[in-house]
Amino acid sequence: MVRGKTQMRRIENATSRQVTFSKRRNGLLKKAFELSVLCDAEVALIIFSPRAKLYEFASSSMQETIERYRRHTKELRANNPPMEQNLQHLKHETATMMKTIEQLETSKRKLLGEGLGTCTMEELQQLEQQLDRSVTSIRARKGKALAAENAILLSQKRSSKELNPEIIVLGPPGVFIRYEKEFCSRFHVLKPWESPLPLAQFLEAQAQNTRAALCGGMFGLSAPVLHHLPSLRMVATTSAGLNHIDLVECRRRGISVANAPAIFSADVADLAVGLLLDVLRKISAGNRFVKNGLWPKQGAYPLGFKLGGKHVGIVGLGSIGLEVAKRLEAFGCTISYHSRKKKPFVSYSFFSNIRELATTSHILILCCALNEETHHMINREVLMALGKEGVIINIARGAVLDEKELVRCLQHGDIAGAGLDVFENEPRVPNDLLVLDNAVLSPHCAVFTEESFGDLYELMSGNLEAFFSDKPLLSLVSEDDGDM
């Protein structure tokens, strides 16, 4: 009996060892499969390789992957800033590694297979430990690769800020929207409109050391805004006009201002002449007359006025005013002008009094800057002096002209017509203007041409680069600037 029980126990122990051995064999096979997936190897090669070669093969494959990481990490760290191609390569490898790690976790539940042949228990244990170390090592390498990638991205961001001078864009102006990529390649750009913070808080948090700003004509660069930019020393505005900038405060703070005085001159002058022709010849009104089907019903269309031979008074003989004068001379017009100072280099008649200029003119074209002196310069008195056949064109700023008085004069026939590209409260336009056939309106678009935007980008970026290079600004605003 005792002998039979002993023999039974031996059989049970051998069976138990066989079960344990089988479990270990199967478990090891699964780990080999997992590592083969991790190292991008052929599963069949793992399964049918001699057991002595199994770990050597898997380890070699894993080591090759690790060496690729080391090589790329070294290359990326050696470059400042790192090459984008290498960075993308590292991102790709990291993503691939993450995917294989996920496969490693899920493969345990999927693989069923045979054992590894005639391995002893000790060999299986040793091989299992080696594979465990391999999996742990490759996981660690994956973590280091991710850390290296993050370090590179942070270094790249810091390098961009260090290599490219910092500017803040306020508005943003249209030219920045069109050429954002180009601006960002040359400067480290702060973009307040992308932040959830109010402007003042953004400036306090992000722009205390910013030395240069880019803004458009619709952004009010006032004393309170400048207060939040203590290090600001240069402003580049994309407009010719300067009424949106507190120039007195800028001078007090030692801030240089650059504008776009001549970039748009030809385009604005073209639109001014276009508006004038439209008003005189009733082009827009005639277009509506035809499209609304009134021609067959009402017959003859009202007469317009010729442009040739008219006396034109230009208010503000700056770069735009001179371009307007040049174009109208070609039509046979007589040119006179009003400006803060007489221009010694032109032969046009000069009027120091704006009302006297209106009295002698058929047409007034406003080309001056908006400031305290020119605000509502064109009032009822000037409009009445222009007379019932007079036409006024405004491509300056809306508030140079008293809009309410203009509407009354147009409604009552005190002047013949108006062409307006600018308004007092843009983009809101008085409803009374919208229904008048003798008023031609455009949405402050005189400067909007593809050619001018390209030139404007070059001028603005050139001014900014000149500032950071301690060179003279390309279009510095002087204290005497007042005509556009």
Automatic annotation (TrEMBL):
GO terms for cellular component: nucleus. Residues 1-61 form the MADS-box domain. GO terms for molecular function: DNA binding; oxidoreductase activity, acting on the CH-OH group of donors, NAD or NADP as acceptor. It holds the Pfam family SRF-TF. Residues 87-174 form the K-box domain. PROSITE patterns: D_2_HYDROXYACID_DH_1, K_BOX, MADS_BOX_1, MADS_BOX_2. GO terms for biological process: flower development; regulation of developmental process. Signal peptide: none annotated. Keywords: DNA-binding, Flowering, NAD, NADP, Nucleus, Oxidoreductase, Transcription, Transcription regulation. The keyword Cytoplasm does not apply. It comes from the Eukaryota. Belongs to the D-isomer specific 2-hydroxyacid dehydrogenase family. This is Uncharacterized protein. It comes from Penstemon smallii.
